[in-house]
């Protein structure tokens, strides 16, 4: 089973100047691919801190996806941090330099040229197919922080990632509060230890008070747990259901 971590980089995210969108997007996309996202970290534009977190995540997860810090300004330090995390030097990549020169033309300067200095061993995925390729260093994919650019690159990348058994989700929407459900719900969850059971209060719905979810990789098991829940639930409590697709 493939696992993943997401490292969101940028003072602007931690200070609230920019609303974070990329991790939310990657949560949905990785889930659909059957990749188990296990950690999201938000970190400042600091080389040592980024390198420390990145080194730990790369050792723990199958894939790591970074977001932010790859532009031409003083606070774009992600590539230097990746190099430090893996203890490799930065090298100027002629292919990337050519792309930058073609795009920036008369605006090309030393700050922009710095974007062509990549950690040694960087693989350029989508070179010749994307306006700018996806950078991969070992098991780390380095993405820009601008949401539309990250999404464009991930749309390309996901066709090349190994797709595993996607997660299957079932949901039940109930008109009773979760305190009335906690004990029997925990009992049902214990019967299906291979599945993920969730209970969430719904505060913005006049009719629905609680949403119950069951999720897993085996559609038959999710369906069995879903129907087991329906067996003990009072039919009058159920507003609507979303059974798994088997």
Strand line-up of the largest beta sheet? 2-1-3-8-7-6
Question: Which blocks of ≥5 consecutive residues have pLDDT under 50?
Answer: none
Q: Summarize the amount of helix as a percent range.
A: 25-40%
β-sheet strand percentage: 25-35%
CATH class of the largest domain: Alpha Beta
Query: Separation of termini?
Result: 21 Å
Largest sheet: 6 strands, mixed
Rg to the nearest angstrom?
22 Å
Structural class from helices and strands? alpha/beta
> What is the second-level CATH architecture of the largest domain?
3-Layer(aba) Sandwich
Report what the structure shows.
The chain has nine helices and twelve strands. Helix content is 36%, strand content 25%. The protein folds into two domains: 3-158, 3-Layer(aba) Sandwich (Molybdenum Cofactor Biosythetic Enzyme, Chain A), CATH 3.40.980; 168-242, Alpha-Beta Plaits, CATH 3.30.70. With 246 residues, it is an alpha/beta fold.
Short descriptors:
246 residues; Molybdenum Cofactor Biosythetic Enzyme, Chain A; Alpha-Beta Plaits; 2 domains; four-stranded antiparallel β-sheet; 9 helices; 12 strands
